[in-house]
């Protein structure tokens, strides 16, 4: 029986800590969140194409 997700809640805590700023101007937390969001969107796209 397929499972349908009707609501997706993503919670993240980002602190403004200037010691973790990389050369691109993004903190490591922002980079991780962006990678996670991209992956989630890819999975949703794959699921919708089936």
Offer a few descriptive terms.
about 0% strand, single chain, mainly alpha, 1 helix, about 45% helix, about 50 residues
What does this structure look like?
This protein is mainly alpha-helical. 44% of the residues lie in helices and 0% in strands. The protein contains one helix and no strands. It has one helix spanning 28-49. The model has no long low-confidence stretch (mean pLDDT 75).
List the SSEs and their pairings:
Layout: H1 28-49
- Overall spatial form: elongated
Mean pLDDT: 75
Biggest beta-sheet profile: none
Over the alpha carbons, how many angstroms does the gyration radius reach? Answer: 15 Å
Helix content: 40-55%
Number of strands: 0
H/I helix tally: 1
The helix/strand order is H
Task: Determine the N-to-C terminus distance.
Answer: 15 Å
Report the structural category: mainly alpha
| Unreliable stretches | none
* Strand residues, percent: under 5%
What's the quick description here?
The chain is mainly α and 50 residues long. It has one helix spanning 28-49.
